[in-house]
Design goal:
The protein is 39% helix and 13% strand. The chain is an alpha/beta fold. The strands form three sheets. A six-stranded parallel beta sheet has the order 3-2-1-4-5-6, sandwiched between helices. A three-stranded antiparallel beta sheet has the order 7-8-9, covered by helices on one side. The protein has a two-stranded antiparallel sheet with strand order 10-11.
Length: 394
């Protein structure tokens, strides 16, 4: 984590109006905030971002790890956007903003009066970034977007390392995070283009498209040959239980990885056996091959077998729980856990020097910075008082 000044960060001076909530949008805007952008989180009065109350044991959201994991380095204003006074505040903010980000359903920002065409009339340099479930057109465009739905509809959920396994979901928000990072890329590209042209543009990403893009190799194989490409199903790749845990082996990038695996496991050279002598035969007899591996690996510890496998320069690793990974020496060396107000969080995965990630301030309480933000717009104490009395902000 950097101790450099804010000015040394690459996005210092960039102002982002953040209408996003839950994960896809907030993880994108947090990445921008981590590298210097002034991110103003525009929330609903009395409720705010849905992730503020995602845990039953923290109904006020003040110590909610889910919300805090996605909203550091941001400021918050809670605006009632149902009336013209609240909308006028947003229009005033747009005048000096660089980016407006939302992850509502298609058409919502336009109906509120905050679509790109409306905002660029106020500020031609504005960049409007939109994250959705399925995109802005097509049969699913107005369908509610959610990570698991994107997994299901994009083909990700149907792909399994073994066809006999039940179909199941991936329990980490893969689509949300990947689409959020694609949104960051789109915003940065638009900012670079604006330096050349002087005008902003509209940027759009979706959970669905991000999941398709993540499968670019598999998709290209299918489009070219109507054939499945499934790295997890390869015969020399698998997860195997040990006496005290489990390990994974990836038998790849070697002239004869099966021979090396057998050498590590003190098994006869199965690559000389006609049943396993070629890749095609290994695929055909994968069940028996893995039975032999499991029988051997189950006799000793994870550490023991990793040592043997690494002696043969094989790709292998222990299967760790998240808790074990967070407590590992590698995580500490990479400085991937940071402390914030007695709560520990995951840091940014991007290392830059000297323009590094910087923890500038804690995730905001709902509406914490309203007076400060309004003052920056030139609103005097009397006008701020009027808006407060009218409950335009909180």
């Amino acid at each position: 984590m950097s101790t450099s000044s804010d000015a040394a960060q690459p996005l210092s001076g960039v102002r982002v109006l953040d209408f996003t909530q839950v994960m896809m949008g907030p993880c994108a805007t947090q990445m921008l905030a981590d590298y210097g952008a002034d991110v103003i989180k525009i929330e609903r009065p009395g409720a705010g971002d849905l992730s503020r109350t995602a845990l039953a044991d923290d109904p006020d959201g003040l110590n909610n790890p889910v919300f805090r994991s996605l909203n550091r380095n941001k400021r918050s204003i809670a605006l009632d956007l149902r009336g013209e006074a609240g909308k006028a505040v947003v229009y005033d903010m747009v005048k000096t903003a660089d980016v407006v980000v939302n992850n509502f359903r298609a058409g919502v920002m336009d109906r509120m009066g905050f679509g790109y065409e409306a905002l660029r009339k106020i500020n031609p340099r504005i960049i409007c970034a939109f994250g959705s479930g399925f995109g802005q057109k097509g049969p699913f465009s107005h369908k509610g977007g959610q990570d698991i739905l994107a997994q299901a509809t994009s083909g990700v959920m149907a792909r399994k390392p073994d066809k006999h396994l039940p179909t199941t979901l991936y329990s980490t928000a893969l689509a949300d995070y990947s689409a959020g990072m694609h949104m960051v890329q789109g915003i940065l590209l638009a900012l670079m283009q604006r330096e050349k042209t002087g005008v902003g543009q509209s940027v759009s990403v979706s959970l669905y498209d991000s999941m398709l893009a993540m499968q670019m190799q598999e998709a290209s194989m299918w489009l070219a040959r109507q054939r499945e490409l499934n790295w997890g199903s390869f015969p020399l790749t698998g997860v195997f239980d040990t006496t005290d845990g489990a390990l994974v082996i990836v038998g790849a990038f070697k002239a004869n990885p099966l021979q090396d695996i057998c050498r590590a496991l003190s098994l006869p050279d199965l690559s000389a056996d006609p049943d396993f002598a070629s890749f095609a035969r290994q695929v055909e007899n994968k069940v028996e091959l893995h039975r032999l591996f499991r029988s051997r690996i189950s006799t000793n510890t994870t550490e023991f077998w990793l040592g043997k496998l690494e002696e043969q320069d094989l790709l292998c690793a222990p299967v760790q729980t998240l808790g074990e990974a967070l407590a590992s020496e590698q995580t500490a060396a990479n400085e991937m856990v940071i402390s914030l107000d007695a709560m520990r969080l995951v840091a940014s995965p991007i290392t830059m020097e000297p323009s590094a990630f910087k923890l500038r301030h804690a995730p905001p309480t709902l509406g914490e910075h309203a007076t400060e933000i309004l003052g920056e717009l030139g609103y005097g104490p009397d006008r701020i008082g009027e808006l407060r009395t009218a409950k335009v902000f909180s």
